[in-house]
Amino acid sequence: MRALRPMTNEEREFAEQRHGLVIDFLRCKRLPMNEFYDVVIFGYLSAVQQYFRNPPAGVEFKAMAFRAMKDAVLRDGEYHARAKRCGYTVSLDTEGRHSTIPDQKQDVERQAERRALLEQAATVATPRESKIINLLIDGFALHEAARFLKIPRATAVSCMDDFCCRARAAIG
Fold it and tell me: Structural domain tally of the chain?
């Protein structure tokens, strides 16, 4: 996010007059005010400053503000989803403290089983489906695989639907 600079009086008045957009955005996206207001407001204020610094031709401020607020929510989600922020909290006050830590070995085993199943099912796949499956095995999401292969997302979804029907029949 760009660093906010102190707002001019004109920007401050403009932001105050259109503050209802923040509330509208939170309601439209069904985001709880007490959790997301602080995140969204910085996107909104950034949009106000950008609007005055480089006014876009033919773009309404509302559209610009909604985009900036949406980006702020996405960045916040990415920030909190980082692995180093998703650690497990363990209380040392309880006797069964180890029972709260998930078994990482089971997760690895489950991933290996899924990978083996996908590799087995890939034997009934067409060449295009095989490319998609290999990307999925490597950890890409379906939409990322479609982008990587330069095919429409709907085509990738359709290919995988067809593949799933054939694979279920083959595997049993």
Answer: 2
Q: What is the pLDDT of residues 77-120, one digit of tens each?
A: 888 777 665 555 555 555 554 445 555 566 677 777 777 776 77
Long-range (24+ apart) CB contacts under 8 A made by 92-99 are none
Taken as a whole, the chain contains a residue count of 172
Domain co-membership, 78 together with 125: no
Name the token pair of 13. 């008045």
Place of tokens 């660093």: 3
b/e burial code for range 40-53 (CB count within 10 A of at least 16 → b): bbbbbbbbbbbbee
Residues 71 and 127 in one domain: no
Say if residue 167 is in the same domain as residue 136: yes
DSSP state of 82: S
- DSSP code at position 122: G
Query: What local confidence, expressed as pLDDT, does residue 19 receive?
Result: 92
